[in-house]
Amino acid sequence: MRDRDLVRRSSPGARLRTLHAQGRLATGYPDLRELLADAGPDELDFAGRVLAPLDPDEVLGHHPETPTVRIAVTGRGTVGDVVPALTGQLARHGILARTRVCGAGGYLGDLADPGSPLYTHAPDVTLCVLDPLTVWDKVAAPWQPIEVSVAAERQRKALGELAATHAACAPPGATLVLNTVPLLHRFTHQLTSLAQRAELGGLWRQFNADLLYMARPSDGLAVLDLEPVTSAGARADEPRLGAYADAHCTAQLLTGYAREAAHLIRGLRGQAKKCLVLDLDGTLWDGVLAEDGPEGVTAAGSLRGAAFGAFQHTVKQLAAQGVLLAVCSKNDPQDVARALAEHPEFPLSADDFVTVVADWGSKAEGVHTIAERLGIAPEAVVFADDTPFERETVRAGVPGAAVVPLDSEPALHAERLLADGWFDTPALTDEDRLRPVRYAQRAARERFEAGSADYRAFLDSLDLRVEISPPYEHELARLAQLSLRTNRFNLTGERLSTEQVRQRAAAPGAVVLAVRAADRFGDDGVVGAVFARAGAGRLSVDNLVLSCRVLGRGIEDATVSGLLRAAREAGFTAVHARWSPTRANGALRTLWPQHGFTTIGGPGTATEIRFRHSLRRLGPVPGHLRLRLRLPDERQPAVPRGGR
Amino acid sequence: MRTVEELIELANTHLGTALAPADAAAELTELAEWDSVHLLRLVALLEHELGRPVPVDAVLQARSLRDIWAVAVGA
């Protein structure tokens, strides 16, 4: 048996130790995501400690495509201990951290000075860890609650100003992360008057609330709420290490912080999962469908049944925010259909699921089938099942998909499902809320297509309308989301935050366009974006992104043809465009040549091919759709305010 | 924990260091394998291993692994 096989057969913790002992953490980096997926606190701590000293360049040398995030860490007191925890948590999500810890205790200097090492590091994310001594280091005994209130408000204002400096000095799109500050017993109980103690409690919550209200996660300022971390059992302060090393946070608090921060970073990178695939027996209801029959399964009416019902409510809550729900069950399809239809007392009904796979095949295949039906990548799936065998099957057969370990205790299902924030995103767009409806329309469209004699006739019958014009203010977040989340149809893989999209659109000569589509099955809303610039008589397309949901309907061809026509009408003499290969966009290499572009540069650079169109001969806009395309009018502001 | 070697073993197991028994007397600042953030974690590991609190101020001021072991076990 080869070493590698031996390593594969041992437990994840042992495999991690083997990689470390053999000095193969860098070469084995892509395996860490799977190894750490279900790791316990000790294993994660160990992983963080051995990964933190690892040179990111060594990992990138072996695996150049590893997603990397530049992180600056600062804070009040000694907070460097957050680095191992954060490194481990990010590795769990396949993200490589390039971290710089700035001056201990000096977050004011780090953040206020544009020339500080913090800004020199050019962070994507700056973590300013506010420990439990925050504010209290400015309060001298004897004190009254009012003095704490004044110090807290001063602190909050200072943080607001530092956030503004960060927005100006950190790279575009960077995010500053603050956090709420836990209130310690040893401060509240220095007040012997219960009335004053209540006042302190109130004003402290106000301070934390004001911090939370400052959060604009899409626009560069996030605030982590640590109350759920401490209320789940993490003690906040370590008095001895606080007194002797100015390290006031406990390891548990920093671990909880790091976990939340990693989820935030994943969300900022647009890596939120899109679809929740659920098992049925033991996951959504009590009972075994094949044995108890459709009438025999319960999610209400008994103690255990009600616990399943509560879990269904949690799932429904996620669906209301755009998470696509699907079923993958080993059962006969007609039994599943009956069970979903015949239980009006269940919070979830058949309509809540965008697709159902019920058969006796492998669940890994089931997940692939669901992803294919929805037009999403299999790794955008979260799979929840109470059967270990099924989870292992999916883990092995669908690399990159998240697998949620449920067990026989339904009262813990919700906590397990939400533990990793798989669906967290900086802000919800209108599109998110409507996504399940859009996918239902898509399913109706596909059924219709299956019934059409040929594809051409199907397209003709869609009554497809495409409108392309500068984005409205309320569409900017959606454009950012498309740039963050599209993979297959993203010509360069460039990711932009909402703020970056706004800046792009407002820049002189900017041609930023939203692509909207609608057909007889419904309005798809904003489905794509064009990022281009006008200058020197030519239009340069920096990137073009399109939702996978609408591919195959000719919208991509209409966008390119329409853009060429509009460019010629506007008096441009040429259109330039580019394509940079990413893991998923290989099929787009021929997009520009298909529309009459000639290659003018690359692949000498290996990372980009450039194209040019002389606008002499233009292809037709596909005949099955109606296209309206308007370039930005120089007399109008680049980003019009208000609704459509 | 009867010997400093056991302390070294504890560190290697949990912190991923590759410390050798010969490192026991070396200045912590001289040890390439040692990082100051390890010390805070080591306090918790020691207390868990010994089942009782250790004098944190003395551990933090220790200059070698042998010093740490000595103050931790009260030798």
From TrEMBL, chain A:
Protein name: HAD-IIIC family phosphatase
InterPro entries: Acyl_CoA_acyltransferase (IPR016181), FkbH_domain (IPR010037), HAD-like_sf (IPR036412), HAD_sf (IPR023214), HAD_SF_ppase_IIIC (IPR010033), SGNH_hydro_sf (IPR036514)
Domain of life: Bacteria
Xref: NCBIfam families: FkbH, HAD-SF-IIIC
From TrEMBL, chain B:
InterPro entries linked to this entry: ACP-like_sf, PP-bd_ACP
Superkingdom of the source species: Bacteria
Transmembrane regions listed in the UniProt entry: none
Domain Carrier positions: 7-68
Protein known as: Acyl carrier protein
